[in-house]
Design a protein that fits this description.
By secondary structure, the chain is α/β, with parallel strands linked by helices. It is built from 10 helices and 9 strands.
């Protein structure tokens, strides 16, 4: 590991610990500034956001999409504070309040003897809501390890204070074993990882390469698939909405399950579009002869 990478990791950890000590009234204006700075510095991400919003909201005025982009970076800045709270505040008494709706769907699946795949979209408040959820039930998170080893160790150590376990997405056998043990697995599959492990499923009327892993894991383990949507509330609190199990686990192909999944995520995004992770190239894999919307020549 290069010295610069190591120093960057320790700097981010220091800032997270400092932010975790701040009351929200102090932190919020600082995160607004942070969001604006990120918008100015992250030129390529601005282009990706613009391409995503243009593809998903073609009927909007350009000025409307620009306002949403500004709100998105503001939301991103605030997520730094939320990560700080989730990872660095030891006592839950000093966290914002969160209401979890739909716990009866978890209880029903457990009473029937199923493991549970709890899926969600990449929303900016995902990290703090993951802690709320993990403190309400034994939760095993599935994640992509960070490239920075210093941050990776800190992230995993922090999450293991409230999660039952953390499993790398690169170890599917461990995930399958956990489901066979009837545990609750929590992950966000709404990203484009290429055509090899995906099928094209509509998302905002665009063909989106959607991972088949959700269907394959559920079908192999007998688990049910539920969705959980994290939301920020106007009063500074949070809500997590757990919805009934998705259909199609027993189908011969993944399309039924994945179509329902993308529809649920899209519905949640439309409710709070400024809080979704539009920074990812969700449509980078295209059907044959498809147009690359992220090309800088567009």
């Amino acid at each position: 590991m290069q010295l610069s990478q190591k120093l960057l990791g320790y700097l981010v950890i220091f800032l997270l610990k400092v932010f975790s000590l701040l009351p929200i009234a102090v932190a919020r204006p600082l995160t607004v500034v942070l969001g604006r700075v990120l918008e100015l510095l992250m030129r390529r991400r601005r282009q990706i956001v613009t391409a995503n919003l243009t593809a998903c909201f073609p009927d909007w005025e350009e000025s409307h999409r620009r306002r949403l982009r500004r709100q998105l970076f503001k939301s991103l800045g605030f997520s730094f504070y939320e990560i700080a709270l989730a990872w660095c505040r030891i006592s839950s008494e000093h966290l914002p309040k969160c209401r979890i709706q739909g716990l009866e769907h978890i209880e029903s699946a457990q009473q029937r003897g199923h493991g549970i795949i709890l899926v969600n979209g990449h929303f900016n408040c995902l990290e703090i809501c993951s802690r709320f959820l993990a403190e309400a039930m034994p939760l095993t998170g599935v994640y992509r390890p960070l490239n920075n080893p210093v941050l990776e160790r800190f992230q995993t150590r922090s999450r293991l204070r409230y999660a039952e376990a953390m499993l790398s997405k690169r170890k599917p056998k461990q995930i399958l074993t956990a489901l066979q043990q009837r545990r609750i697995i929590w992950f966000a599959p709404d990203q484009d990882f290429g055509p090899q492990r995906s099928v094209f499923i509509p998302f905002f009327n665009q063909p989106a390469a959607t991972l088949t892993a959700t269907w394959r894991l559920a079908r192999s383990s007998g688990a049910v698939v539920l969705t959980a949507t994290p939301q920020r509330l106007a009063d500074g609190g949070y809500k997590i909405i757990i919805e009934p199990e998705l259909p199609g686990v027993d189908a011969d192909n993944p399309e039924i399950l994945l179509t329902s999944l993308n529809q649920r995520i899209e519905q949640a995004v439309r409710t709070a579009p400024a809080d979704y992770w539009w920074f990812h190239r969700r449509f980078k894999t295209t059907p044959e002869n498809g147009r690359d919307i992220y090309s800088q020549n567009n």
